[in-house]
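U., I forgot to send this yesterday:
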Amino acid sequence: MRYLRLVVGSLVIIGALYIIVAEQVTGASSDAFVNAPLVTVRAPVAGEVTLSPRAVGAEVSLNTVLFSVTDSRADRVRLNDLILERDKAEAEVARLEARKSAVEQRRDRLSATYEDYATARLRELRRKAGDTVELPLRDPGAESATPAPNATDQVVSRDDTLDGSLAAPTLLGFQIDAARREIFLDDSAGAAWNYAYWSGAARLEATRIQDDLVAAKAVLAAYEERIDRERERLIGLTAADVTAPAAGVIWDKMTADGVTVQRGDPVMQVADCASSVVSLSVSEIVYNRLRTGDPAAFRLSGEDHMMQGTVARLAGSGAATIYDSLAVKPSREHLERYDVTLIVPELRRAPMSEGCGIGRTGRVFFEDRPLDPLRRLLN
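Result:
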């Protein structure tokens, strides 16, 4: 009996020592804390900042107004340039319209002069014919002509006409017959030809100017449309309400209320609670056994509830730069060990009313411990 008690006592002591040692040597982090990425909200335009009354640490939801920027001196350079180009296009349209009007007047004047000349010349030829002999003049296409009383002895031949119609057999009669067709055969033909030529040239020039005028009006319409769009854009630039890009907490105000900022200047930082992670450091032995995607359990200090997660990033030693965009910066002891990032879905699903829990500490375990079944039973 004495030996039995000794054996049982030894087994109990050995089991207790095993549990104590196993609990301590099981892969776990030395420290772990809840972290979240920071989103820097910048001024979309230059102007005076009006911050919301929310203090640092206040919870904000998506699209909550964080601040507004008012610019009474919005940049109108582009609008002024477009207006200048529009004015040039209007001047070009006015120039083409004036030129078209002048060319059309010239065309009409030349055409009228040509018609007047042709009528006057035909009358002149008829007067000359009437002074010498009464010619059997007739309209083109007539089959016969009535001879004048004093021209009955004239012989009329179709071969003496321009197109086979009957006409006077004399040179003057032939000129009259041609003048009816606006063909002048004497020395005055040069003047008539010039009138007809320049009238046709003016008509062609007017057509070309009309084409240029259509193109110029299209350019003017395009500038008008661009000016309208630019004015709409300026309306949005003179005053802008900037909203939260993510649900989280206001982490930092990087400027004061009423300060004039430039476009792109940082104004506020928001911690994105929906993307929170757990930052931790481990020993080299534990770090070398880890792989991305390995399961892990995170327990907040002072709580018994274990939250399941996975290894998302293995940054190793000296991983200071990866914390530039995170809310909580690591300690010196943390950077001397090997950095690991853990994704815990339960933290990301926590309601905003409970806060993000950024900065809360705990421990992460990568292996089951001997007392885990008992912990699960008690929980």
